[in-house]
Amino acid sequence: MSNIAELNFPVLVSVPHSGRDYPPELLDNLNVSASHLLRLEDRYADVLAASAIASGFPAIVARKPRAWVDLNRSRTEIDPDMVVGLDAAQTPHISKKVRGGLGIVPRRLHGVGNLWRKKWLHQDISDRIESDHEPYHRIVTHLLDQMRSVHGCALLFDLHSMPSVLDENKCRVGFVIGDRFGRSCESRYVELAAGHFRMRGHQVQTNHPYPGGYILERHGRPARNIHAFQLEVDRALYLDRDMREPIAAAQSISELIQSCCLMLAEQLSGRDLLEAAE
Questions:
Q1: pTM of the model
Q2: Would you say residue 276 has pLDDT above 50?
Q3: For residues 113 and 19, what is the distance between their CA atoms, to the nearest angstrom?
Q4: Which has the least CB within 10 A, 13, 34, 126, 256?
Q5: Helix %, strand %, coil % for the chain, to 5?
């Protein structure tokens, strides 16, 4: 990861759901075909971050898959029905996501059923949290704090992908920007990002149907000038018809995200204001 001397921009790119390194113990316990796990991936979202990374933006990209541990869930969002050695009293407040089978370790998928042959040991889940989940978030916190020290501000650009959705006019939405309804990011940065994609001919929505989750809740601190928003990209923009592999258009989407990061970095650093004053 970048050190403080390399933090030339006040924007950190996070790609938490594109991991494709499936541990053998995960595959050995599957109750369904491994191909079903692709539905949990933000398939090749890391490719969309490549141009920004090549430009020098620091990034943290998950290698392990969401099926192993979901970095966008709290460590308390464990489904007691899929774990041995966990007292239900330890998870008194079960969220809607967990009840739907999508806790910190997913349990089931709609139309597929239960993912695992055997329940996981609570120790197994705890080990994943300590070895993969918490280190990811500690690095994000550390880098955002360093950026704020260097630049006086920081923004977490949390990159995801989504199945195609339509707006109220039945037009396909290219991008959804989530900021937890204004709680994780100052509105002007969200508006600037939305305008950036609209100017390139894309439909953009904010917070509907994806307002953002635990990553934004944990890291967005607008009062401290640490902002965080989530960008969901329509997979049809950059994947083939089977939603398996990137197509040539992935490069242009990657470059569009890079230019958005550059624009936001200028806004955050105040360079645009300095240039206007000269």
A1: 0.93
A2: no
A3: 22
A4: 34
A5: 40, 20, 40
| Residues 238 and 32 sit within 8 Å (Cβ to Cβ) | no
Q: Report how far residue 22's alpha carbon sits from residue 2's, in angstroms, rounded to the nearest whole number.
A: 26
The boundaries of the domain holding residue 225 are 4-20+43-66+128-277
How many beta carbons lie within 10 A of that of residue 148, not counting itself? 17
In a domain, 267, yes or no: yes
Sole residue written with tokens 């089931």: 108
Q: Which residue, 194, 219, 198, is CA-closest to 207?
A: 194
Please write the tens of the pLDDT for every residue from 229-266: 999 999 999 999 999 999 999 999 999 999 999 999 99
Asked if residue 153 belongs to a domain, the reply is yes
Would residue 90 count as lying in a domain?
A: no
Residues 264, 267: Cα–Cα separation, whole Å: 5
> Does residue 9 form part of some domain?
yes
